[in-house]
Amino acid sequence: MNAMTTINFAHRGASGYCPENTMSAFVKAVELGATGIETDVQRTKDGVLVLIHDESLQRTTGLTALVKDITYEQLSALDAGSWFHSDFSGETIPTLEQLLSFGREHGLILNLELKNGLVQYEGMEAEVLKLVSEYGLNDKVVISSFNHYSLALCKKLAPDISTGVLYMEGLYRPWDYARTLGADALHAIFYAVLPEWVEEAREAGVVYHPFTVNEPRDLERMLKAGVAGIITDYPDRLHTLLNKGMVR
């Protein structure tokens, strides 16, 4: 996971241009220069791991229901694209396996955020890790979550898997905290990232992958700070800066 240049993580795919967490968004991300994909993992009523951010299906499909309460067959029939633009009518919610296959084909780093805070998906950690291993992607995956107990469990189950601590701001010496979880990265809101913190974290063996960085001036600031990866809705903007030689 020690990339020579900053990893260009497309946030939910190229979600600035396509409906988030759809195959269209993932394909577009690669076209725009992304070297990584950030996405969200949840589980259907019948146990299928799927990629969607909200626990509720209301915002992206119009269905007033929770992901955990419907079957994959029901979920796969929903239109997850029209809310964004009519051009994407008929887009469906992908499975984790679809992305693992796509990521392996394109050599991507996959940041899988486990959405197990508001809804507790018991056993999801082991299920995700099993699939990642089956696809031979242990060295191409970062597991992140706001549920840090979940991250600790992932490290216990698969010590070779990279994990990233999601948090908003205010953690004192977060690299020290990350080490208590065995975590490899800090997935901080971007305004909670300063160059001196990035350096101290690196000395402690922990890297930064800030989110969600969209404006060129903020992307430049993060690159100058020396972060290892950036999560953005606009991977083309970051790709342009990286091509100008703005790498750590």
Automatic annotation (TrEMBL):
<feature type="domain" description="GP-PDE">
    <location>
        <begin position="6"/>
        <end position="242"/>
    </location>
</feature>
<dbReference type="Pfam" id="PF03009">
    <property type="entry name" value="GDPD"/>
</dbReference>
<dbReference type="InterPro" id="IPR030395">
    <property type="entry name" value="GP_PDE_dom"/>
</dbReference>
<dbReference type="InterPro" id="IPR017946">
    <property type="entry name" value="PLC-like_Pdiesterase_TIM-brl"/>
</dbReference>
<protein>
    <recommendedName>
        <fullName>GP-PDE domain-containing protein</fullName>
    </recommendedName>
</protein>
<dbReference type="GO" id="GO:0008081">
    <property type="term" value="F:phosphoric diester hydrolase activity"/>
</dbReference>
<dbReference type="GO" id="GO:0006629">
    <property type="term" value="P:lipid metabolic process"/>
</dbReference>
